[in-house]
Amino acid sequence: MNLQFDMFAESEGERATHPSPDSTSKRSRSIEMDEADMVAHLASTGRYRILRKLQPRNIAATTRPEFPLHGVILDTETTGLDYRRHEIIEIGAIAFTFDSSGTIGDVVGVYGGLQQPSNPIPSEINRLTGITDELVAGQVIDMATLRRLIEPADIVVAHNAAFDRPFCEAFSPILSGKAWACSHSEVDWSNRGFEGTKLSYLLGQAGYFHDGHRAIDDCFALLEVLAQEVHAHALTPFAELYRASQRSRVRIFAENSPFDMKDHLKARGYRWSDGSDGRPKSWWIEVDEPLLESELQYLRTDIYGYPEADPPIKYLTAFDRFRA
After folding, report:
1. The whole model's pTM is what?
2. CB under 8 Å, gap of 24 or more: what pairs does 287-294 form?
């Protein structure tokens, strides 16, 4: 015996024969909408954020003369964190042109190469990068190709130049005489609305995703992030980075500072050097040159308590910064 609510239910056959007008219209709309329409529709609801897969830029057949300067975005994968003990197992590099205002022009060269290290790749590096001993077996980075990209460069950009530069200079002298810039530390990402500085996060905020942790993929990702134009900012991230690279900075060593002041120095952004890299054994910080006097005043007043204190300083340009 049918219950009351069963009497008003259609059979499976009836539902198949008489689809509801609403479901038919929904299917029609989905068929008629192309990919661009679907993206626009989802975005317009305010409930979705669309990430597009990053499509690497093509190498330009001819370069535009209005972009006379040359840059290289460089990334490395290594067997560890210490350039004195560990080795490069992959280098990615993208050569591009730009103008004096920091506008990026054309991609003019791309290189990605693997190198077999002298020892097996640690398992944690394998998990992070996907690079295995089998993948690098017999592989050697093509230094002639890399040199052709590097030699014309007016600036070399890495997302963590303090990591990549020491490894690269230990690997080959072709990068030792170049000006370097760090897109991690020399762009004010927080002022641009970013809450983090990891490359994958920056790329996501820019509306893209990519296959990360391989060197050439990360180079293309960084190029796209640096080229982003945001109406709220007069400068692209690369233009800001290029300007920052042209400024002198000063490294100040708080040598012989009182031990009980270490927490104050650390809180202000000072880092510890144990002296093993040739620097003074002390806390140190880098500041823009115009901030030198105010930082010295802080040390004399708040740390040393001695107005005549004269801590060692070292002036740095992009040719010196981020060295080991």
Report:
1. 0.81
2. 287/249, 287/250, 287/252, 288/247, 288/248, 288/249, 288/250, 289/247, 289/248, 289/249, 289/250, 289/315, 292/250, 292/252
